[in-house]
Amino acid sequence: MSFKKFDFPESPIQIIEHPLLAQKQVILKVKRDDLLHPHIAGNKWRKLKYNLIAMQQQNKSAFITFSGPFSNHLYAASMACKLFALEGHAIVRGPHLDIHNPTIRMARACGVQLHTVDRATYRLRHNDDYLMELQQRFAHCHIIPEGGSNQQALVGVQELANSLPKSDYVMCATGSGGTLAGLINASSGTTSVIGIAVLKQAEYLIDEIIRLAPKAKQKSNWQLMCDFHDGGYGKFSTALWQFCKMMKKDCKLPLEPIYTGKLFYALWQLLEQDFFAPGSHITAIHTGGLQGLDGLRYRQLITN
Description:
It is built from 12 helices and 10 strands. The chain has helices at residues 19-24, 43-57, 72-84, 102-109, 119-122, 128-137, 151-162, 178-186, 205-212, 238-251, 260-272, 292-298; strands at residues 13-16, 27-32, 62-67, 87-93, 113-117, 141-143, 169-174, 192-197, 222-225, 281-286.
């Protein structure tokens, strides 16, 4: 069985130039995983890749996953269905489906079968009994968790980690914890790995990261910073959005304010606080998600 169709060329590294970086004598490189593939960008593809391989190895003919209605994961999974002619199902947090939502429109156009559930049912997405019942109902499907974060995902993130330049710090935005767990797994003791939590009260993710990557319990070279969520998941301030626009204009780095914007906004605040010693080399992971800007425009949360 060949899996070469799932291989894409590695994404590029961009060196960022900015007066604050020069002032603090810090080198910042960005792993542009938003450019990993023209249609399935960033960590969502890293996580999906080995789930799709596992699906084929288990002789499953389809997959089923979970997502919110504006999810980057849903977008990536839908595009994978279109590109690789796969059958895909998504359990979408509802209870109602807005067919004008650009992410939902794209998923339907790609042929993904959407199953809406109420919020109480959606909260069962990690429940073993519910998952067993779901597996019986969709016996031909490989189950992929919300966000794609599982052991298969960590193999994809390992590939990302192996492609990074030698750094004193590696930083990423953290939603479900899978990307951070994979980076911790692959990190050397000389590199500090920092996750910037994008949701409020995210300390619970530390246990999830250790569950995904047991090595993390013995490692002391990583941390999850939980004070840069800017209001919580899906929320952002005017100041953060203005920062995103500044980074695109001045540094040629496109960002969105839900994930990558919070990462770089936090990084800039840490620079101003002299968190990084002069001479430090930082690699920040651009995990993609730029198509999420369409959803923010649709909801009139941004205007340009």
